[in-house]
């Protein structure tokens, strides 16, 4: 589209450097004032075309521990789902890409989250980390499109925070084990029976010994 008769701004796509299908959702007629000052717009020739690119990298493996701590402190709760380096680049004609670190107004950015990294409640936060400061940004989740959108005017490190509440695991109830029953005391009959047996054996032995003694005594008297 033509802007102030001076330049054309196009939102371009670089799929190789935009792994989450990031898009700028602002109206095209608003882009010139958001991206460039009036002085910058006046300095471009009428036939100049400026292409604007979003570059998104997954930096989970490169994020430093101090940066993780700053992000977690800003989020207060939830678990970091993605760590991203989001850069806004401009290209004037065929010149090399030039980074745009800050814009004059807020750009609305949307990201398509991977299916294996979405929660059922759609409860997300976005934290922006820039020059050692972490800011919590409002974010909206579109369940139909699977896109997360937020507004920002600074391009740097971002984290998508998963704030879904995980239900507490309930421990299964333990079956109550019966306490060990005390060993049953032996009945009196069970105790008396071996005693009677022993007493009977002893009586028989005593009678036998007495019979032997009497027999020997008679033999001595007859001798």
Give an account of the 3D structure.
By secondary structure, this protein is an alpha+beta fold. The protein contains four helices and twelve strands; from the N terminus they run βββααβαββββββββα. A hairpin with a 5-residue loop joins β5 (about 80-90) and β6. The chain is elongated, with a radius of gyration of 46 Å. The model is unreliable at about 1-5 (pLDDT under 50).
Topology at a glance:
Elements: E1 2-3, E2 7-11, E3 23-24, H1 31-35, H2 38-43, E4 48-58, H3 65-75, E5 79-92, E6 98-100, E7 102-112, E8 124-130, E9 133-137, E10 139-142, E11 147-154, E12 157-162, H4 188-222
Parallel strand pairs: 2-4
Antiparallel strand pairs: 1-2, 3-7, 4-5, 5-6, 5-12, 7-11, 8-9, 8-12, 10-11
Q: What is the subunit organization of this protein?
A: single chain
Number of helices: 4
Per DSSP E runs of 2 or more residues, the count of β-strands stands at 12
User: Mean pLDDT across all residues, rounded?
Assistant: 77
Instruction: From the alpha carbons, calculate the radius of gyration and give it in angstroms.
Output: 46 Å
- Residue share in β-strands: 25-35%
**Pairing-aware structural class of the strands and helices?**
alpha+beta
